[in-house]
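At this stage, I needed to go through a protein sequence along with its fold in token form, as given directly below:
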Amino acid sequence: QLNQSRTVGLKARHRSQRWQPLTWGAGTLELGLSARIDRIDQAQNLLAAPANTTWDRRIDADVTAADLGGYFDLDLELSKYVKLKGGVRADVLAYRIGDALQNFIPSYRQQTYLVGYRRSAAGIATGPRVALEATPWAPLTLSVAYGEGYRSPQALLLDEGEPAPFTKVRSADGGVRFNLFDRASLRASAFYTHLSQDIVFEATEGRAEPAGPSTRLGATFYAEAHPLPWLHGSASLTYVRAKLDDPPPRTAENPSPPFEEGQALPYVPPVVLRLDASAEHALVDWRQHPLVGRMGLGFTYWSPRPLPYGEQTAAVALLDGELALRYRLAQLSLQMLNLTDARYSALELVAASNWDPAAIPSRVPMRHVIAGAPRTWLLSLGLSI
């Protein structure tokens, strides 16, 4: 696979002065503009080992994408306890696609045109956003929010003159934040997200393909503590129930699709846990400057991840560590990833595969494992100027 991209863009914004028409209310207005142009070259070829000869070409395309967007954002203080934020953003996206492999000519037909399919498409995406924040007590903050966004389309799937179909993303969340004497903070939130058209990586095609609408419902928890000036700890936990609402139906070409209605969204772990602890303290003074040492540990846990055809992976637990010394402008650090040298799969796929171009392709889905990195040591020297 090859993906080369070149991007040019700009952003501009202006925020007004604070305006206070009422004694109990004040606010500001922000206007913004953004523009971006991407030039992308893509290729995907199937190779035969060990000579690495190309026996099939799947993608040979170039894409030019332009995005012009604007927004306005209103930030209001309704009182010293309540804040209201809201705004609207709109984007115009245009695509020009050159696909060198489409409209191919079979060998039994006379060549009457050149192979290839050049086309253009465009579309407009808009979305509002609103958030309400209340602080009834100085250490406590409550918030609720709703917003709509979009996911840009797969450019190679667009046809000539087609209004670019954007995936509509609707999201709502509510949360609470509590700070305790600058020594600890707690954050918790619940969220709901609906995508009008989700995508799932398709191993046989080597790219993400539409999988129908999906819904995510979950919650996050984050805690951070400084019990001592030199000691820091944090913990984060995320739970999500992601499911496909209406996946593509059975067809003659694919009588046994990998997804069913209500199935968990593949490759998304329902539970992710992260624990971090670090200690940093001056060890000795050398030439009137302290030599500071730091030690840290991190633990990551992924629950079993759902896979196509109702399968799932094993759980993953990883332990990382770091040792560092800092003196004036220089820092020497040793990072140790996967300290226990655990064997785990970074990614697992379930799909039919064919390793012999001369044989009849198998249609039986098989498990494919991409191994995670073993124990890794990284030594680095940095300078802060």
Observations:
- The first strand starts at residue 2 and ends at 15.
- Residues 135 and 141 are 5 Å apart (CA to CA).
- DSSP finds no helices and 18 strands in the chain.
